[in-house]
Amino acid sequence: FGRSETGAKIEIFLVREIESGVWETLARPARRLHDGKQIVFGNDLSSEVVGKSVDGKVIIRFAASDDLEKQMDAIGKTPLPPYIKRAASAIDDDRERYQTIFAKQRGAIAAPTAGLHFTPAVLDAIRERKIIVAEVTLHVGYGTFEPVRSDDINQHSVSPESYEITRKTAEVLNRAKRESRRIVAVGTTTTRALESNISKFSTFTSGAHLADLTITPGYAFKAVGALLTNFHLPKSSLLVLTSTFGGHELIMEAYRHAVAERYRFYSYGDCMLIV
Fold first, then answer.
1. CA 199 → CA 23, 45, 80, 204, 265, distances in Å?
2. Alpha-carbon gap, residue 31 to 16, rounded angstroms
């Protein structure tokens, strides 16, 4: 939260670093943020509006600093989804909680929520059953949250998201495919990354890549054999992916049950395992 030179309150959400110190952001009120507008965060972190993207995101350049990340961490608040209601003073209780136990690198704008169900004890129990746990790096992007605005779902395109597969994980996944072992994806972001990878390269291929696949009804899954996923919001690409994987009628039946039993949806919410 910052203030303009006129004292107006400005709220920005950091989406993506375009280059060093220059960020694509969601901003409120965006209509007032013209090129050259000065914004100060905290006591001394200054910035300038330098443009807008074609979809209305505000581009902001922060003043050069050797410790910009530390300043952002000190000034910024955990960007919880808006349906989670918190007093402003309580938000930073989520700085640790709104992370998966796998989280190691900066880059995602939100936690991949299916991973929030896991604890070290749960993973130990899984490994005791001779199930191999393999990790991928997911940089959850804004595309995950963009609502489906087209009446024809096949006309909707989900923005690309960055992910990375290590050589070790690629070997584990390829061996599982060769041995006809079931690959269980934890979350829709993992599913999209794995399906994008194998669709593009035919086999699981290590490296940093973009998940640019939009999964809609009729898609034939090539990588994932089971999916652990939260209950998603209406009109979301995540619900479309889940319905494509599990079948529309089965998933709608699950959602009717979830609503009737007052399950919690989305972040910090309940989940389902689709086999």
1. 31, 44, 33, 9, 30
2. 20
Query: Do residues 240 and 212 make contact, with C-beta atoms less than 8 angstroms apart?
Result: no
Cβ atoms of residues 232 and 239 within 8 Å: yes
Give the global pTM. Answer: 0.88
Reported as a single tens digit per residue, the pLDDT across 155-170 is 778 889 999 999 999 9
CA 40 to chain centre: 28
- Residues 14/25, Cβ–Cβ less than 8 Å: yes
Please write the tens of the pLDDT for every residue from 221-239.
999 999 999 999 888 899 9
Q: At what angle are helices 188-201 and 237-246 packed, to 10 degrees?
A: 70
Contact yes or no for 42/75 (Cβ under 8 A): yes
Is the separation of the CB atoms in 79 and 13 below 8 Å? yes
- State the burial class of residue 155 (Cβ atoms within 10 Å of its Cβ: 0-12, 13-18, 19+): exposed
